[in-house]
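Support request from a user on the community tier.

User writes: "When I paste my C-alpha cells into the form, the page sometimes reloads and wipes my input. The last time it worked, I copied everything first. Here is what I submitted, just in case something in the input itself triggers the reload:"
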C-alpha cells in the first residue's frame, strides 16, 4: 500500500486555517493531522472541538485528531460530534485504555493509541488487536520543528515486527522531525502514515513539499 502523508496543521497559519486546508486538498494530502493540546499533558495549548467542527464544514479531508490531553475520556463525544474521523489518545493519559478505545469505536470512528518516545511498546500490546493505528511519537510532544529522536526508529521496527508476527492489521503512524531524509528511515522501519508539519508548511509550497515526501518513499513498499 502507498505511504500516506498527513500534514499537521500545528505548523500552519492558524489565522487562516480554512485556506491552509484547501492547500492540503490541492496537494493531495491523504489525511490532515490535528493536534489538540490542553496545556497540561503538554505545555502548549492549541485548538478544541469547536475549531475542528468549523474546519469540518470546509473540508472533506480525513481528520486525524490527536488528543494530547489529560483525561481524554472526558472529550471523546465532543470530538466525535465535531467531525473527527480518527481519534488518537495517549496511553500515558488514561487509566482505562481498552474501555476508551472501545468507546471511540462505538461511535463508528477509527480509534488509535499514541506512545511518547520513552514509553515502551509492551504498554499497549493488549489493545493492538482492537486499534486502527498506533502513533509513535518520534519527538517529545508539544511543539513542532523538533529533530527526530534516533532510538524511536527501533520502536517503529519492533512494532512492525510484532504486527507481522501476530498477523495484525493496524497502521503505524509517526510524528516528529520528518523531512525528506527521515521519512525514508521511518518507512524502512515499518511506518505507514507520516505526519509532517514544519517541513510542509515552512516550505513555501505545500504541494511541492507533499509530493517530495511521497516521491522519496514511492516504491519502498
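"...and here is what came back when it finally went through:"
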Amino acid at each position: 500500500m502507498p505511504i500516506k502523508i498527513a500534514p499537521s496543521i500545528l505548523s500552519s497559519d492558524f489565522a487562516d486555517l480554512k485556506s491552509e486546508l484547501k492547500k492540503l486538498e490541492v496537494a493531495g494530502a491523504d489525511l490532515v493531522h490535528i493536534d489538540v493540546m490542553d496545556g497540561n499533558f503538554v505545555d502548549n495549548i492549541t485548538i478544541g472541538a469547536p475549531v475542528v467542527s468549523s474546519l469540518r464544514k470546509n473540508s472533506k479531508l480525513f481528520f486525524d485528531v490527536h488528543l494530547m490531553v489529560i483525561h481524554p475520556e472526558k472529550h471523546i463525544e465532543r470530538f466525535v460530534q465535531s467531525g473527527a474521523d480518527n481519534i488518537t489518545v495517549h496511553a500515558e493519559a488514561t487509566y482505562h485504555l481498552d474501555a476508551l478505545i472501545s468507546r471511540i469505536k462505538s461511535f463508528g470512528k477509527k480509534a488509535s493509541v499514541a506512545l511518547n518516545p520513552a514509553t515502551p511498546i509492551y504498554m499497549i500490546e493488549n489493545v493492538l488487536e482492537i486499534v486502527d493505528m498506533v502513533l509513535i511519537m518520534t519527538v517529545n510532544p508539544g511543539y513542532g520543528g523538533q529533530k527526530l529522536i534516533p532510538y524511536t526508529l527501533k520502536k517503529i521496527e519492533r512494532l512492525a515486527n510484532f504486527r507481522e508476527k501476530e498477523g495484525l492489521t493496524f497502521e503505524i503512524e509517526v510524528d516528529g522531525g520528518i523531512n525528506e531524509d527521515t521519512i525514508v528511515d521511518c518507512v524502512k522501519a515499518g511506518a505507514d502514515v507520516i505526519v509532517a508539519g514544519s517541513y510542509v508548511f515552512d516550505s513555501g509550497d505545500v504541494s511541492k513539499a507533499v509530493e517530495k515526501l511521497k516521491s522519496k518513499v514511492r516504491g519502498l513498499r
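Agent notes: The reload is a front-end session timeout and is unrelated to the input. The chain has a mean pLDDT of 95. The first strand starts at residue 4 and ends at 7. Escalated to web team.
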